[in-house]
Amino acid sequence: MTFKQLEYFLEIAATENITKAAENLNISQPPLSLQLKSLEEEFGIKLFKRSKKKLVITNKGLLLQERATQILNLLNETIYDLQMPETNKETVIHIGTISSVSNSLLPKKIAQYKEINPSVHYSIYEGNTTTIVNQLSEGTIDLGIIREPFNMNPYHSIPLKDSSLGDAQFDYFVAIAKASFYKFSNSDYIDLTELKGKPLIMHRRYKDLWANTCRQKGFIPDFFCLNNDIFSSLRLAEEGVGIAIAPYTSAQQNNNPNLILKKIMHPAMSSRAHLVWSVNLQMTEELQGFIQLFKD
Predict the structure, then answer these.
(1) 90-163+273-295 — its CATH code?
(2) What is the pLDDT of residues 25-45, one digit of tens each?
């Protein structure tokens, strides 16, 4: 496997078409096809499923897409750091973040810190909590913004404040679906038992939490679809195939007026986001200053 092969693979994944990818890469189609075939043979897996209209990336292909993006980003940053003269070298804070925070709180904090220290630059990686925890372990990022539950032992952490959550500052789960799924409820709230027998769509990291809680209420939940991204849940809810379950702060990314949000009650289940960093992180003045903004 070479860096060039990874670049070729990512372009094919982005265009879902060998011909289009070859045009964008300014190479002919046969060599590109051979490079993809060579990559698949090296790993012993299929990275795409072939259809008449497009290439459909496989689950293994999605994993390689995620890791290849990280690898090439790190390579480019390494080259940049090595070639940058010491006198002009920038301070870069590397942050991995879940999408719900990258779209709301994080941009405000970066803008706030720019007023204090305009020389600091940022490299942001969006992903899920599992991916971000791996990046922290590998040392490819300085800070992570992740959501409970996670193992707090290897990290220092600060619970994040969100003005939309009120004084309690604990996120809560909501049901997101078309009105047809709420014929049994006219309230802005919904009891957990009212979801019995309903097709549920949610991030797979919440599966065990939900399965255990629903069993305590006397039923087994119907997990129609488990995924790794809030946008997947929202899109499926838009199609009317089930009820999406997500933390309220994540659900705020919904902009479809046909989807109705209801707070889940009895029992309430909370999930809070945290800023975390490794207990072994070598702390710079710039990192200390940026972290302080989340404590104030």
Answers:
(1) 3.40.190.10
(2) 888 888 888 888 888 888 898
